[in-house]
Amino acid sequence: MSGCYCGNSISFQDCCEPYIKGIKNAPTAEVLMRSRYSAFATGAADYLVNTTHISKRRFHNKRDILAWSQANKWLKLEVLASTETTVTFKAYYLDQNLKAQVHYEHSTFKLENGKWFYVDGEY
Questions:
Q1: Could you tell me if 31 and 24 are in contact, meaning their C-beta atoms sit under 8 angstroms apart?
Q2: Is the pTM of this model over 0.70?
Q3: What's the average model confidence in pLDDT over 60-80?
């Protein structure tokens, strides 16, 4: 694969993987969102749970996240807009029936103790 799952031209190992492995913290909301997309693409459910804001974690079951990430084939991420605390994006994927899908979301993020967290999104 050339480039990272998140759409950046650099490799996954040099882009999102250090965030997913906990080696580095995402410096911006957009970088966190991109790394979360890569986590869906690679089935890194722990990272998805750990980067969800603590106030919202009860709504995100690790088993369900893992099942959803593995049931789909993740094709492409398109970031449409981002501010310091929000990211609007489209995630393209094939569902379990190999039907093309687009997940459109305006996500909100929060910086706490030097770490970014996903709070919620409007679909």
A1: no
A2: yes
A3: 92
Q: What would the two tokens of residue 5 be?
A: 């799952």
Task: At 4, give phi and psi (nearest 5°).
Answer: -85, 160
User: Looking at the DSSP assignment, which residues form a beta bridge with residue 121?
Assistant: 107
30 in a domain, yes or no? yes
Domain range spanning residue 104? 12-122
Say whether pLDDT at 1 is over 70. no
CA distance 97 to 10: 31
For the record, the structure tokens of 53 come out as 């804001």
Give the C-alpha distances (Å, rounded to integers) separating 79 from 7, 51, 70, 100, 111. Answer: 9, 19, 22, 18, 20
Can you tell me which residue has the tokens 């979301």? 105
The total of other beta-carbon atoms located within 10 Å of residue 47's CB is 21
- Structural domain includes residue 37: yes
Helices (H), 1-123: 17-20, 29-42, 45-50, 62-71
The tens digit of pLDDT for each residue in 92-117 reads: 999 999 999 999 999 999 999 999 99
Q: Does residue 3 form part of some domain?
A: no
